[in-house]
Amino acid sequence: MTTEKNKLTTSWGAPVGDNQNSMTAGARGPTLIQDVHLLEKLAHFNRERVPERVVHAKGAGAHGYFEVTNDVTPYTKAAFLSEVGKRTPLFVRFSTVAGENGSADTVRDPRGFAVKFYTEEGNYDLVGNNTPVFFIRDAIKFPDFIHTQKRHPQTHLKNPNAVWDFWSLSPESLHQVTILMSDRGIPATLRHMHGFGSHTFKWVNAAGDGVWVKYHFKTEQGIQNLAPDVAAQIAGDNPDYHTEDLFNAIQSGNYPSWKLCVQIMPLEDANTYRFDPFDVTKVWSQKDYPLIEVGRMVLDRNPENYFAEVEQATFSPGTLVPGIDVSPDKMLQGRLFAYHDAHRYRVGANHQALPINRARSEVNHYQRDGQMRFDNNGGGSVYYEPNSFGGPAETPENKPAAYEVSGQADSVAYDRDDHYTQAGDLYRLLSEEERSRLVQTIVGAMQPVEKDEIKLRQIGHFYKADPEYGRRIAEGLGLPVPEQ
After folding, report:
1. Which residues make Cβ contacts (< 8 Å) with residue 404, sequence separation at least 6?
2. Does the active-site annotation cover 56?
3. Where exactly are the structural domains of the chain?
4. Which fold has domain 59-143+187-358?
5. 247 CA to centre of own chain
6. Burial class (CB in 10 A: 0-12, 13-18, 19+), 155
7. For 235-267, what is each residue's pLDDT tens digit?
8. What's the pTM value of the predicted model, to 2 decimals?
9. Catalytic, out of 37, 63, 129, 199
């Protein structure tokens, strides 16, 4: 017996009498345009795929919670961090960066590490990677960089000439390139990698005092990576390996977890630290600014529907709560616009109202209309501000804390350009086996580059980071070390 619960209907709720045969003029047709159920099914099917993300297209996600384990109220007034033991629900999306939606999980690529905290003061998004640095440090270079990671417009193939040409002409990329080409360039699973906010952010406490902060998610499963030959085999056998592993781990009750720590820098240190603390191609030494434990993130529930949750989840570093603010990091400043704008294009102007993105706290604003407005659109309430009808009003105590700026309006680079020290330090930290694998990976990646000019320019950067680093890659490519 058919009940109301399992009765098939059209999208407007009318019962469907026949879902196996389209309406035709006689047994052989033609099909009638009056079959509105058929038309709606076909039209909706044509629109079932929203545009994929330009970057981070291939991803996996899960629900979980964050629990505070250490008192950080001296540094921030963020309510979800206000007391030890407090739990906040969250959603995480992991992703590769350069590949398309159907690409393999086990490619050599940074991994996106995006966390949405559903706090009582609104959502807070921490949108980072599994690396503490990035390839570039100014958002104006981002479209060009991503173009090099995509496909050649004529051949539609990946283009190592573009990749290494851009990197060799952008020496600030050397630190991230070294990480990417190291063993950590291919995580064994999404559970066995660290996560980082990467950028510098600002925390402000209840007294209005601020500090600069960097986020570190330390995997409690331990770091594990894949050898390139194993990763290549898995990519062919099971391109969704990481997605499957995360789902199965949670499904079996093996909940992955990370410890969140931060580095704290006094505001005044930004003017004297030996590296620009807002340059996302650099790290802060943990000897200078030790890790401070904040809490623990646990993923314990899989999505019920991939599209509704993982694909429609939208993250932006501009999704902030009181007590957490941004820094003058030029790459971060560009992302504050670009991420929200990408979601408006890809998912729609009302993407924040979708269930996966909707804040768990009360949402009161004067934004109205737009495509796919699926709530009551504010009803008949007042729709402008300021007003005399008791509508939502600003709360001055939640204004972001001010900080001093100075200088002329101009297109200006960072004033410190040491792109080699930290990359060299990282190389020297590696064991001999790790260095050999790093060199082998770089040599293999650079061999298809057609111009020796590009190879020699890049070898020069490796040499400046560490002479042995440069010499070994030059020898592997059968090229001389450029005169320094």
Report:
1. none
2. yes
3. 59-143+187-358, 421-477
4. Catalase HpII,  Chain A, domain 1 (2.40.180)
5. 19
6. exposed
7. 999 999 999 999 999 999 999 999 999 999 999
8. 0.93
9. 129
